[in-house]
Write a structure and sequence with these properties.
The chain is of the alpha/beta class and about 450 residues long. The chain has two domains: about 40-200, no CATH class; about 205-450, Rossmann fold, CATH 3.40.50. The protein is built from 14 helices and 17 strands. The chain has helices spanning about 5-10, 15-25, 30-35, 55-65, 95-100, 155-170, 220-230, 270-280, 310-315, 350-355, 365, 370-375, 380-390, 395-415; strands at about 40-45, 75-80, 100-105, 115, 125-130, 135-140, 180-185, 205-210, 210-215, 240-245, 280-285, 305, 325-330, 340-345, 420-425, 435, 450. The strands form three sheets. The chain has an eight-stranded mixed sheet, covered by helices on one side. Strand 5 and strand 6 (about 135-140) form a beta hairpin. Helix 2 crosses helix 3.
Length: about 450
């Protein structure tokens, strides 16, 4: 393979296809992609979507995520002609579904099904989304559900992301997938809290942030912005979002970044800004590096949302002087790609201390897998193989859970709660999640407006 051909392949390679390559389950990249193209999923949509914004948000989020890895098709049945209530383009729910990659129709054979709302006569391989207030997750079809009449944007997006993770596990034939209860509370994310219990829920959602600086517009940054865009803003024109990134959209961006559509091209800042401005938000674009020379001005937003995966940039997070920083990172390898760790600053440990330790290089182990050997035999040199091995495995459902948790920190602050210093979880072992409340008192007005009634 010529160098130019390999570079084009790498730019376009689906980040979840890389999972099978790194596990040694695919003999070459084409085989890994073929497996994704064999994945199909179905969504059964109940009558609730005709009058519930939260149910529509859950459907749209689920379609948006599933269509990025279930490349064999995402079909939907049920009440799809409902007028659009959710804050997303489309005259009807079906029009928005189709724009996001879904298709009206019955399931193609025996494929996993997700139920949103109430549906009868559901196949055995089915899970049910459920959400209320600050809580969201999944239960097996037919199990007791939360009070979905009190669903919110954040709980609906969260439930859809966890549901997409479960569908992925079902497609990969994990034994327990589809038979378990999985969820969490954005208000009380610690594993000691039962997400199904009202005790773990928070107050009614009344306030939303309207001045934010978002650093990094890839996987995590776009997930955060999707969750934010679903929120019930009364005046979107009054929301100012500073978007900072220097990267271009590539063919692989759409496999993890849920505001990037397949036809997107150009700078990430401009592509994301077009979407947000079409939804009524105001944006400011920064296409400069984030380093220790960068300083926050008094008129800039007081909250920095960081979704970059560059250790050096993360070590410099406190240097510009933002009063509150909310940062998240996700795993990169086949073993830890479903792991999420969130930090807030100020903290007892400084960012420079957290990211001073070098990352362990595992590329030598990965490049011995059969798929890499096949590429080597095809003429790819060691430098190219190392680039591929160093590319992260990525799943859009992981970033979406992280994005909701980042947004949740701001919402908790606006509703009189304290932020967490650290949240640590893995979607493969969600019950083992941990959240440590911050010991640093915050006196901060991040800028806000009331929710649309």
């Amino acid at each position: 393979m010529k160098e130019a051909d390999f570079a084009a392949f790498l730019d376009g390679f689906n980040r979840l296809a890389k999972l099978d390559l790194d596990l040694g389950e695919a003999g070459d990249p084409e085989a890994a992609m073929t497996r994704l193209k064999g994945y199909v999923a179905h969504i059964r949509v109940g009558a609730e979507v005709t009058g519930s914004v939260a149910h529509q948000i859950a459907v749209l989020t689920l379609v948006n995520i599933l269509s990025r890895f279930a490349l064999g098709g995402v079909t939907l049945s049920g009440m799809l002609d409902a007028p659009m209530l959710a804050p997303w383009p489309g005259r009807t729910l079906l029009a928005a579904i189709e724009a996001l990659g879904g298709t009206a129709g019955e399931p193609a054979g025996d494929c996993p099904t997700t139920i949103v709302g109430t549906a009868d006569d559901v196949a055995d391989r089915a899970i049910q989304l459920t959400f209320e207030g600050w809580r969201g997750g999944i239960v097996p079809a037919g199990a007791a559900r939360l009070n979905e009449t009190k669903g919110t944007a954040i709980s609906a997006v969260l439930a859809a992301a966890i549901g997409a993770a479960e569908i992925f596990a079902m497609l990969r034939k994990e034994v327990a997938a589809g038979r378990r209860l999985r969820g969490l509370s954005v208000w009380r994310p610690d594993g000691d809290q039962d997400w199904l219990s009202p005790v773990s829920d928070g107050p009614p959602l009344l306030l939303l942030p309207n001045r934010l600086w978002i650093l990094g517009l890839g996987h995590l940054g776009q997930a955060f912005l999707w969750a934010l865009a679903m929120c019930p803003y009364a005046d979107r024109a009054d929301v100012s979002l500073v978007l900072q990134d220097m990267d271009d959209v590539t063919g692989s961006t759409a496999s993890t970044s849920i505001l990037t559509m397949r036809a997107s091209r150009g700078r990430k800042t401009r592509d994301v800004a077009r979407t947000l401005e079409a939804l009524g938000f105001s944006t400011v674009l920064i296409e400069l590096p984030f380093d220790d020379q960068f300083k926050r001005r008094p008129e800039d937003p007081s909250v920095l949302i960081c979704g970059v995966d560059n250790a050096h940039a993360r070590s410099q997070l406190e240097a510009p002087g933002f009063p509150l920083i909310i940062e998240a990172g996700i795993g990169r390898t086949a073993q830890d790609f479903q792991a999420i760790r969130l930090h807030t600053f100020p903290s007892r440990r400084q960012a420079a201390e957290l990211w001073k330790i070098g990352v362990v290089d595992t590329t030598a182990v990965v490049t011995e897998k059969p798929g890499y050997q096949r590429l080597r035999d095809g003429g790819v040199d060691d430098c190219g193989l190392a680039r591929l091995a160093g590319t992260a495995v990525g799943a859009p459902f992981v970033g979406t859970v992280a994005g909701v948790l980042m947004l949740g920190q701001i919402l908790r602050l606006l509703h009189g709660d304290q932020v967490d210093a650290v949240i640590d979880l893995d979607l493969q072992a969600l019950d083992a999640r941990r959240a440590v409340p911050s010991a640093i008192p915050l006196v901060l007005n991040p800028g806000f407006q009331s929710c649309d009634a």
